[in-house]
Amino acid sequence: MFVQVIQGQVTDAERAHAALDQWVAELAPRATGWLGTTAGVTEDGRFIALARFESAEAARRNSESPAQDAWWTEFSSALGGDATFHDTEDVVVDLQGEPDAAGFVQVVQGAGSNPERARELMGQDSEPWAEFRPDVIGSVAALYDDGDYTMAVYFTSEAEARVGEKKEPPPKLKAQMDELQSLAAGPPTFFDLKHPWLYSPS
């Protein structure tokens, strides 16, 4: 899988949302290899999107389309300044349900001191974690060579997520969580998408 993360400050959230709706309706049917997009705007106007493709080649073909270029020109006019892009094929997916059913998405960005170990920890004990946190539908993590990462975590609702994050995990899961947190190189940045825009091929 290939993930492109796009982010920037938005000046007109409704216009940006409408533009993404337009992309899905008009351009997505021709975007071969597109797997879905998770996007939204935080309460302080930060836009972030994770666009998923089967491969970097599929994403490249889409970006080279004249229709895509025209659409981006229109979409970017809803942003206050330039957007930034982060691309990777190092993606870890952990799903217990249907992400498009999420009522709340939290995107986390940060850096780690040991990406390989972090990847191992994220791949362990999916079933016990799902039992402990039934509010978590799943996650998609985009990892970069320098240890940076962007992770989208899908929740049933924000209210259930807030209750879940206060629960004390059992010892084994707590040890994993503590080790993962110990690998962080500085505090992470959170994007709370209270009204996520969730798209997938029809």
UniProtKB/TrEMBL annotation:
Superkingdom of origin organism: Bacteria
InterPro entries: Dimeric_a/b-barrel
Protein name per UniProt: ABM domain-containing protein
Organism, scientific name: Kribbella turkmenica
